[in-house]
Amino acid sequence: MTDFLNEAKRVIKEEAAALRLLAENLPSGFENAADIIFSLTGRLVVSGIGKSGHIGRKISSTMASLGQKSFFMHPSEAHHGDLGMLAPDDALLLISHSGEAVELLPVIDFAKRIGIKIISISKTETSSLAKNSDIALCLPEAKEACPLGVAPTVSSTMTLALGDALAVALLSKRGFTREQFKLLHPGGQLGRSLAFVFDIMHTKIPLIMSGSLMQDALIEMTSCGFGCIGVVNNFNKFIGIITDGDLRRNMSRDLLSKSVDEIMTKNPRYIDKNMLVSELLLMMENEKITNIFVVNNEREPIGVVHIHDMLMRKIV
Q: Most buried among 32, 162, 272, 274, using CB within 10 Å?
């Protein structure tokens, strides 16, 4: 293996070791920082310069995607009017590995004048940033993976991981649901994978009463084109399903004169409309189900889903 590849592996191993160190030495103010953000009535405003700024943008974006109102404020732009974005009910998350970034000084000064809480991420409690923070999250000491010891590598990775940890801890504390997550991620592959059954189910569904003849069931099955029909009792409760497979297994000369109750699969699987489509697809593939009915809390059928509905949407 070339020295080039060995060096690449060394960097990744050192960053992985730093993350283990961070997990074992989570900053003592972590829980207090989470409490401040959790109780906010305003926004979490993240700021930093250079690599810290890039990491800050990602942390702010993750916070917003998980339900915490947040935006990134560039400290240089803050000097030229963007401080007006801040309000007393906001909180600041300021990032500077050295804790001495001069670009953050006007931001700190303004925050103190209007009473904004400051949470910081830096490498030491003795830094100017840490001393001027309400909560100082200090990273454990670890050398940069850069052989010159100057390029932010290990430090930026730890900062990013700490931001992720804070965002996900807040998600758990807030009880943020998959439904809320979907509302914030409607587009792309992620949006499709977070679709719910009620988004794709057919509401015009083939149904027939218990006690009916198969000749009537076949007409209804054909008219709807799902290759199945649901059977309900006198109280409109879902009690059975007849599929193309059931027809093949029960094929006989007198099939049309038989009762649907003789042919149906009794007590079939059914689902709730709030099930994730990605979970449903996995279930249907594992259990080799082609059609499945959706029922409400009273076990009344309200929809039907065909596996092709999901495959056509490219839910994976």
A: 162
Q: Are 238 and 291 in contact (CB under 8 A)?
A: no
Give the integer Cα–Cα distance in Å for 104 and 138.
17
- Please state the three-class secondary structure of the chain as a single string: CCHHHHHHHHHHHHHHHHHHHHHHCCCCCHHHHHHHHHCCCCCEEEEECCHHHHHHHHHHHHHHHCCCCEEECCHHHHCCCHHHHCCCCCEEEEECCCCCCHHHHHHHHHHHHHCCEEEEEECCCCCHHHHCCCEEEECCCCCCCCCCCCCCCHHHHHHHHHHHHHHHHHHHHHCCCHHHHHHHCCCHHHHHHCCEHHHHCECCCCEEECCCEHHHHHHHHHHHCCCEEEEECCCCCEEEEEEHHHHHHCCCCCHHHCEHHHHCEECCCEECCCCEHHHHHHHHHHCCCCEEEEECCCCCEEEEEEHHHHHHCCCC
The token pair that represents 266 in the structure block: 């009794």
Condensed to tens digits (0 to 9), the pLDDT of residues 248-258 reads 999 998 999 99
Q: Are 261 and 239 in contact (CB under 8 A)?
A: no
Dihedrals phi, psi of 229, to nearest 5 degrees: -150, 140
- C-alpha to C-alpha distance for 108 and 43, rounded to whole angstroms: 16
What is the pairing mode between strands 228-232 and 238-243?
Answer: antiparallel
| pTM of the predicted structure, to 2 decimals | 0.64
Q: For 113-166, write each residue's pLDDT tens digit.
A: 999 999 999 999 999 999 999 999 999 999 998 888 778 899 999 999 999 999
